[in-house]
Specification:
It is a single chain. With about 160 residues, the chain is an alpha+beta fold. The protein has helices at about 10-15, 25-40, 65-85, 85-95, 100-105, 140-155; strands spanning about 20, 45-50, 55-60, 120-125, 125-135. Helix 2 crosses helix 6. The protein starts with 7 loop residues before the first helix and ends with a helix.
Amino acid sequence: MADSFPSLAELAAEEDDLQFAGFTNDDAWELGSALVATARDRGAPVAVDVSRHGHQLFHASLPGTSPDNDSWIQRKTRVVHRFGHSSLYVRQASVERGTTFEAEFGLDPALYAAHGGAFPVLVRSVGPVGAVVVSGLPQLDDHRMVVAAIRVHLGR
């Protein structure tokens, strides 16, 4: 059960719930710092990235990461920007349509990765304005780490 992927409905509900009233540079710093603190506590070898409108506001790479993590961050972030949903949501949407992201969209896998870990910064009444991304753990763990941090930040 711990390794089962959430349904598209569950992921949509998560996105509906985890919306910001606004998103400032300070929000990016607080969220990124909280993710780094959590990763350090767990000894998790992750890279963390927070951006708004294509502007990188926070980035950290913890021990055990490599430039590959930065590549994963870029590829997952492109999925969020193109589709306006979490990278895991986009993956699961293809799965529930009986296909794969790669087969359905034919996008260059060197540029796009529909793997969990990138979550849109959703501003209520505006829509997606950025992304919060973790790379370094199995994709469900990356996703859960980001969601948990956003949930705490929003007081949910």
